[in-house]
């Protein structure tokens, strides 16, 4: 049975699509239009992404990625014991509450909020991003990935945050962090996830779309 992923293409939905591509699980994407009521009944906030797994409904990209990593433990993208679980959750909370929050605030005040509500938060956000980038630099240390030498679901979420940072034109003034983002965003599964969501967007989201089958 395929997973159903509801959301808007090229958004936090990409984290879920990327994760599914990494583990090689079948899925279908369902377009949920921004500002619409497409997710009423699935998401209390009416925001995506939403994963539907045989009647089980889960919201929030980091929670979904951890769930998929746990469910497909054989793929090796999730925690192997309680301590790794704690470290992964620590990484996820940092990625969402600290690192991503800065760029999300910038995007909201640049293009999403009504003009009368937008503020000049640029100087403050630049300072905040610089601080969080230094934190990320220290947390990574000499590791290839967040959890060491093993790519995990944390890198899916954190790597996508890095893509948002580049989109928001924050300077990645750390060779270590820049190399990390380049490494994780070069993974073939990320490219396939973006291509699948771009195909959905090109079709106008009128119906579902599934990734192309692997050649026989």
- Average pLDDT score: 91
* Shape designation: globular
Span between N and C termini? 20 Å
Strand order of the largest sheet: 4-3-1-2-5
Uncertain segments:
212-216
How many helical stretches? 7
N to C succession of SSEs: EHEEEHHHHHHE
Main pleated-sheet profile: 5 strands, mixed
- Give the percentage of residues in beta strands: 5-15%
Summarize the amount of helix as a percent range.
40-55%
Number of strands: 5
Q: Structural class per helix/strand content?
A: alpha+beta
Radius of gyration: 17 Å
Give an account of the 3D structure.
The protein contains seven helices and five strands. The chain is an alpha+beta fold. It has a five-stranded mixed β-sheet, with helices on one face. Helix 5 (153-167) packs across helix 6. The longest helix has 31 residues, at 82-112. The relative contact order is 0.16.
